Amino acid sequence: MVLENLQPLSVMKYFEEISNIPRGSKNEKRISDYLVKFAEERNLEVFQDDFFNVIIKKKSSPGYKHIPTVILQGHIDMVCEKNQETVHDFENEGIKLKIDGDYITADGTTLGADNGIAVAFCLALLDSNIPHPSLEVVLTADEEMGMTGAQNLDISNLQGKILLNLDTEEEGEFYVSCAGGSRGVFKIPLDYTSLNENLEVFEISVRGLEGGHSGADIHKQKGNSNKILARVLNELSKLISFNLVKISGGAKSNAIPREADAVITFDKKNLSILDETIKRYDSILKDEYRLSDPMLSLNFKKYNNEVQKILDMNSTEKVISSILLHPNGIKTMSLDIPGLVESSLNLGVIESKGDFLFLKSAIRSSVESIRQELESELELLAKSLSCKFFVDSFYPAWKYKPKSKIRDICVSVYEDLTGKSPEIKAIHAGLECGLFSEKLSDSVDMISFGPNIYGAHTPEERVEINSINNVWNYLVRLLNDIKNYY
């Protein structure tokens, strides 16, 4: 085991166990079955549904029966991103863990601490004699691809009145509100023509961007490889005539894309213009993104794979225009909470399927009417370009509650344990608290916290070892001391 000597031992043990199980979004059966087996082996009450959500119940410790049941909540799926040169089969391989100083990281892929750490916390608690109220551990599937697990969860098995969501990524920061969102999809029809054998075929690539979480990191103004590539192609189209062979970029709509590629055909007499344009824009982009993405690079090389057909000129222009005009980044800032992003879009994925190109975006807003307006703007843009637009998932915002007993308890216990006051914050990312708030109504009091995780949704994802230990100790103390407040 890689983590066997790290504290807390039980949490690290279970984090490594679940890291060995492939659990990307839409691929959660094995991890879900593992959780069911875990519960059955310990004679715990367990429910598993057709969406692979799992609920595990554990009775209260002596002296805690009068405390309201506590729901511990996280999700079992992870974002599967890797560097292009990394060979890894997310469908069938577990994550290769590494220790790097005070961090746990992975070998060229996302780590899955988002939200595997929550799962490990819950399993360690269920497998312990730590004093606690009655627990309902709710571990949902498919959170990263639209929260469909939580949307379809049957809550009739839940009696909890307190919900602790363990899916945030900054130690000492308690989240009490989050944005809602949806997934927007452009569907662009493509027309092809045959390839003239006398044309040159080259590939243009964007590399070296840092990427990030499309909600939590959108304010950092990281470069979006899809938008950058379209910008370069548009500038090149002003100088030479070319046709697209194919174009792709990004892997997940909720991750800021780090890499993008386009294959183009053009007359060989224009090779020097391509060379000059790519070099010029490589310099321009390096200057523009010198602070946010210092390793950015724009490259081109001869494409040696077989090409049988290319996009016609109309489709080439439509694709470039659609990507370039697609809104991206921060749209509005909150006037209620200084520094909080209120609404944003992230053009995360460009992919081809058959005779269509799809542009997939994450749309987020803490104000429902603004989210609807952003969707309307995208629909009108698509219509003007003779494309289709649709929304394939939606999750609600989690509204701030002025009065919250669990918030007061969490703050008090944190101050007693650390001698410091936590920050009470809202987050632009989506949390399942919004869905649980909607399903369970205002009768359930909830809060969200977790350890320090950096670079979520990217191959640079890492979780701080010392912070895992700190948050574990806090969670244990919170469950132990909660009896003093009732």
Question: Can you describe what's shown?
Answer:
Helices cover 29% and strands 29% of the residues. It is an alpha+beta fold and 486 residues long. The strands form seven sheets. It has a six-stranded mixed β-sheet, covered by helices on one side. Strands 18-19-20-9-21 form a five-stranded antiparallel β-sheet. Helix 1 crosses helix 3, helix 5 (225-237) packs across helix 7 and helix 9 crosses helix 11. The longest helix has 18 residues, at 271-288.
What is the element layout, followed by pairings?
Blueprint lengths: L8 H11 L9 H13 L3 E4 L5 E5 L11 E6 L21 E4 L2 E4 L6 H14 L8 E6 L7 H4 L10 E4 L7 E6 L1 E10 L2 E3 L4 E9 L4 E2 L11 H13 L4 E8 L5 E2 L3 E8 L3 H18 L8 E6 L6 E3 L1 H13 L3 E5 L7 E13 L2 E10 L2 H17 L3 E8 L9 H14 L4 E5 L5 H8 L4 E4 L4 E2 L7 E3 H17 L5
Helix pairs in contact: 1-3, 5-7, 9-11
Provide a concise account of the structure shown.
The chain has 486 residues and is α+β, with helices and mostly antiparallel strands. It contains eleven helices and 25 strands.
Strand content: 25-35%
What Rg is obtained from the alpha carbons, in whole angstroms? 24 Å
Helical element count? 11
Distance from N terminus to C terminus (CA atoms, Å) equals 42 Å
Global outline: elongated
Level of helix content? Answer: 25-40%
Total beta-strand segments:
25
Class by helix and strand content? alpha+beta
What characterizes the major β-sheet?
6 strands, mixed
Q: Order of strands side by side in the largest beta sheet?
A: 1-2-6-3-7-23
Mean pLDDT: 96
Question: Which residue ranges are poorly predicted, with pLDDT under 50 across at least 5 consecutive positions?
Answer: none
